[in-house]
Every structure is written in structure tokens, then in C-alpha cells.
């Protein structure tokens, strides 16, 4: 009697399915150039997937067919060139290859002596070079900037707490700790303050100037007021590339303030890391080299398939002290498989970790920083082009924020009060998505609903922006006519 295994009875039959699947996947990417940006998941496909819990096995060929029919066509649409909503990279085929081979290797990158661990150290090292942090800094690949932010602020908390925060907790060692981020900072910051026990109120919202950059005079006044009230300012979180408008905070001035005040200087460069590759924006982004911690994403402007981000921490000791503490069964040894220090599980909350570094490595090696830079600069030029075209369509269209980097925010002007025009612009965006013409998103600026275009997609062409704008004008006019 043979013992059970999950290996296939026929490897070559499974191989045929794999080869067909790879062909389908590559066709999915190639066809994406002409496909509608988004297809709403049909009810029939949803119903087909909501099956009873599978007790008995199903032949993998059948499983694959169900995936191909019910799942594959109905992704979020970011592999398509007309997708420029929120902040989504389009991914690269080479990144997919890395992810596929990582799945074959099936490594746990919590630690130990193996090459997946080594390759993550390679990628972390490259990122120190990109950002200008010293080689002595520590780093960890994460699911994204949200997780990277939690880790960075946890390390900041360790470094600035009054005693042993890990042992004694906030009530004893973290009393009165407050920090600062602009009103345009990403919501992941507030979430981190909540999760780490500071409370959201401990993250002070610093007002922004007309360019939507942190108002540094206000920052200084807020720090002084908090100190006078007996609180303990410990951190300023600056943003390179805000989600609303792509603004870059004055990093040099914030770094000076942090130095003078003895504060942890954190930088959220989730997609704005790309500014380092732009002649026009590089100077504003370069002072991130003075940061105590930096968080950014590979799955945005670097075009690595989801999900992949990174946290870098200048004070490797504080980073390690925050997350280390393995018990005996996880002890390191000098030789054998249990060697390989440092272990990544000592630099974040997760013990078992996926081999994210491989898809980053494949993407960076295959395209080089030059390839990524070419996309960044193309997208920045496209944003300027689109902003120009929007301005030329006045008074039907109105820009709602200056376009400095890669984001264009504007609205369609229709009849009625502000609420009616806000409604109209929300409808136009949903109309565009449902028609499969383009996928912008919306945001609110000074109470006005903006159609928001964020260009981080390497596949976007000028013709996609032209089709999008024609769609806005046509669908807007149609809605206005229908309401008259
Ligand atoms: C996307 C983004 C985040 C969150 O990153 P995730 O990778 O989605 O977790 C944080 N800050 C900024 C500026 C972002 O653009």
C-alpha cells in the first residue's frame, strides 16, 4: 500500500497544464494593451466560485479551467494601460517570473542559512544605496508601505521611549509621546499610531501650504506647544509624493528641525521614491538620506508585482531590539542550516515570510534602474501633458491642484451647487470605469470632488490619456444633457 503524497500521479500531464497556464498568463499581459480597463465581476462567475467546501479532490485541469473562466479576466485592471486610479503599478513579466520561481522554491525567509535570505540582503543593500542610507542601516522587505510604516514607527518608539517599551508597554514607558505628519499624509500613519498604542490623536496633523507640503513653521510651533504642555515629541513623518497631489515635503528643513529637536525623522516615499530618478525632482527627494527610517513600495513605481515594499532603519540596533527575542527552539547556531545571521524575523513582526526579494531582483536586474527611471520620467511628462490638455479645456474642465509630479486632479464643471458638481464628477469616474474606457479614481480637495489621475503605470501611453479625456468630456456632456 502506498503512502499518501500530494505530488501528481503524472508529472508530465501537470507540466502540460503549467505550460498552457504560462501561455495564458503571458497572453493576459499582451492582450491587456487592448482590453477594457475593467470588467465588473459577473454574477455567474461569482456564483460558480461560491461552491461548497471541497471535501473530495478535483482534477487540477478542471480547477485551472475554473480559474481561467471565473477569475483571470476580472482583476483590478492595473495591468491595463488605461488604469491610473489610486497608486497601482502595472507589474512586469520578469517580476512574474521571479514570483513563480519563488513559489517553486517555497522558502521561508524568516531566517536560516539559504540563498533566499541572502538575496533579500542583496536587495536591502541596493535600497540603502538608492536612498543614501549608510551600509550599517537595517532593512526588511514587507507587504507594502503600510507594514513598513508600522515597523519603522515601532523602532522609533523603542529608540525614544522612557525605558523598555517592549517589556513595560505604553502606560509605563510611552507616556506623552506625540508625533507629526502633514494633513496630506497617508492614512497608514494614523493606523500605525493606533496599532502601536499611541492612539491616533498622538499623531498631530500639521497644516500644509498652497503646494500641499507640510507647513514647517506650523510644525515648529506645534512641537513647542506640545513641549510646553509637558508632552514628549519624538517623531516627524514627512511624505515624498502625497497620495492626493504628489507633493514632496521640505525634507531638508524637516531634517534640520528633527536634528535640532532630537526627533526621529521618518520618510514615507511609497511611490515618491521615484522622484530620485527625475532630474527635475531629485534635489527635493535626496535629503531622505538624512532619515532615521524610510518606507517605500516596489509594487508602485518600481513595477514589481504585488505585494512588495521595504522599510529601512538607520539605527539597526533599535530596529533589532524592537523585534528580536527568539526562544530556544528558534536559536541560531554557528554552522548548519540554523546559521545565516542576521535573520529577518528579528526585524519585523512576522516569523514565516515569503521570498519577496526574488521578484524585486528579477525586475531590477532585467530592467535596471535606467529602465525604471525611464518610466518615472515618462509618467511625469504624461502628467504635465494631461494637465496642459485639461487647462486647455476651460471652462468645461478645471484643474484643482498644481501638478508637480505624476498626479493630475481636476473636475468637470456642470450646473448646480457644489454638491451637484461633486456628484457629477463621481458619476463620470464610475461611468468611465464601467465603460472600460479608463480607471481614474477620485479624491476631495478643499471640499471639491476631483477626478484623480495618478500615473505610475509603465504601460500607459499618450493615446490612453487622450481616450480618457475624450471620455470625460463626452460622458460629462451626456450627463449634463440628461439632467437638463
Ligand atoms: C500606497 C501608499 C501607502 C500605503 O502603501 P501600501 O503599499 O498600500 O501599504 C502609504 N503612503 C503613500 C504615500 C502611498 O502612496
How are the secondary structure elements laid out?
Blueprint: H1 11-31, H2 43-49, H3 60-70, H4 93-105, H5 115-131, E1 138-142, H6 145-160, H7 165-168, H8 170-173, E2 177-182, H9 187-195, E3 203-206, H10 216-228, E4 232-239, H11 251-261, E5 264-268, H12 282-285, E6 293-297, E7 309-313, H13 316-323, H14 357-392, E8 397-399, E9 407-412, H15 418-434, E10 441-445, E11 448-454, H16 462-483
Parallel strand pairs: 2-3, 2-4, 4-5, 5-6
Antiparallel strand pairs: 1-7, 6-7, 8-9, 9-11, 10-11
The structure holds pyridoxal-5'-phosphate.
What does this structure look like?
The protein is an alpha/beta fold and 484 residues long. It has two domains: 17-39 and 75-91 and 368-484, Aspartate Aminotransferase, domain 1 (Alpha-Beta Complex), CATH 3.90.1150; 108-354, Type I PLP-dependent aspartate aminotransferase-like (Major domain) (Aspartate Aminotransferase, domain 2), CATH 3.40.640. 44% of the residues lie in helices and 12% in strands. It has 16 helices and eleven strands. It has a seven-stranded mixed sheet with strand order 1-7-6-5-4-2-3, sandwiched between helices. A four-stranded antiparallel sheet has the order 8-9-11-10. Helix 6 crosses helix 9 and helix 15 (418-434) crosses helix 16 (462-483). The longest helix has 36 residues, at 357-392. It is globular, with a radius of gyration of 24 Å. The relative contact order is 0.14. The mean pLDDT is 97. Bound molecules: pyridoxal-5'-phosphate. Pyridoxal-5'-phosphate is lined by residues 87, 144-146, 186, 188, 239, 241, 243, 268, 270-271, 297, 309. The site of pyridoxal-5'-phosphate has 14 residues, from helix 6.
Amino acid at each position: 500500500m502506498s503512502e499518501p503524497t500530494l505530488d501528481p500521479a503524472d508529472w508530465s500531464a501537470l507540466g502540460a497544464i503549467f505550460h498552457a497556464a504560462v501561455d495564458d498568463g503571458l497572453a493576459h499581459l499582451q492582450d491587456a494593451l487592448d482590453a477594457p480597463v475593467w470588467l465588473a465581476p459577473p454574477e455567474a462567475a461569482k456564483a460558480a466560485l461560491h461552491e461548497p467546501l471541497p471535501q473530495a479532490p478535483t482534477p487540477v485541469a478542471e480547477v485551472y479551467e475554473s480559474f481561467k473562466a471565473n477569475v483571470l479576466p476580472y482583476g483590478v485592471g492595473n495591468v491595463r494601460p488605461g488604469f491610473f486610479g489610486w497608486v497601482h503599478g502595472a507589474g512586469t513579466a520578469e517580476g512574474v517570473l521571479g514570483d513563480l520561481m519563488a513559489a517553486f522554491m517555497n522558502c521561508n525567509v524568516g531566517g536560516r542559512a539559504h540563498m533566499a535570505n541572502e538575496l533579500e540582503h542583496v536587495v536591502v543593500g541596493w535600497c540603502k544605496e538608492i536612498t543614501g542610507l549608510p551600509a550599517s542601516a537595517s532593512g526588511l522587505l514587507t507587504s507594502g508601505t503600510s507594514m513598513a510604516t508600522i515597523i519603522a514607527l515601532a523602532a522609533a518608539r523603542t529608540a525614544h521611549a522612557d525605558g523598555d517599551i517592549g517589556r513595560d508597554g505604553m502606560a509605563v514607558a510611552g507616556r506623552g509621546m506625540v508625533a507629526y505628519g502633514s494633513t496630506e499624509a497617508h492614512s497608514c500613519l494614523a493606523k500605525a499610531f493606533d496599532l502601536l498604542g499611541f492612539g491616533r490623536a498622538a499623531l498631530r496633523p500639521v497644516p500644509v501650504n498652497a503646494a500641499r507640503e507640510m507647513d514647517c513653521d506650523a510644525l515648529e510651533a506645534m512641537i513647542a506647544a506640545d513641549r510646553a504642555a509637558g508632552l514628549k515629541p519624538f517623531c516627524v513623518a514627512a511624505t515624498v509624493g502625497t497620495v492626493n497631489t504628489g507633493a514632496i515635503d521640505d525634507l531638508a528643513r524637516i531634517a534640520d528641525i528633527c536634528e535640532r529637536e532630537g526627533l526621529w525623522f521618518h520618510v514615507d516615499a511609497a511611490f515618491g521614491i521615484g522622484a530620485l530618478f527625475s532630474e527635475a525632482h531629485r534635489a527635493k527627494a535626496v535629503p531622505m538620506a538624512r532619515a532615521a527610517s524610510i518606507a517605500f513600495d516596489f509594487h508602485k513605481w518600481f513595477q514589481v508585482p504585488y505585494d512588495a515594499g521595504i522599510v529601512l532603519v538607520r539605527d539597526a540596533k533599535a530596529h533589532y531590539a524592537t523585534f528580536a527575542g527568539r526562544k530556544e527552539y528558534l536559536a541560531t547556531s554557528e554552522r548548519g542550516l540554523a546559521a545565516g545571521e542576521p535573520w529577518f524575523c528579528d526585524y519585523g513582526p512576522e516569523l514565516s515570510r515569503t521570498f519577496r526579494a526574488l521578484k524585486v531582483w528579477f525586475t531590477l536586474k532585467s530592467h535596471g534602474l535606467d529602465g525604471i527611471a525611464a518610466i518615472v520620467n515618462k509618467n511625469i511628462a504624461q502628467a504635465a501633458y494631461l494637465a496642459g490638455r485639461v487647462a486647455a479645456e476651460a471652462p468645461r474642465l478645471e484643474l484643482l491642484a498644481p501638478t508637480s509630479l505624476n498626479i493630475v486632479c481636476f473636475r468637470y464643471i456642470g450646473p448646480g451647487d457644489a454638491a451637484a458638481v461633486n456628484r457629477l464628477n463621481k458619476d463620470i469616474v464610475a461611468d468611465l470605469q464601467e465603460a472600460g474606457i479608463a480607471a481614474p479614481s477620485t479624491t476631495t480637495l478643499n471640499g471639491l470632488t476631483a477626478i484623480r489621475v495618478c500615473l505610475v503605470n509603465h504601460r500607459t501611453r499618450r493615446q490612453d490619456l487622450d481616450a480618457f479625456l475624450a471620455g470625460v468630456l463626452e460622458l460629462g456632456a451626456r450627463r449634463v444633457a440628461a439632467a437638463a
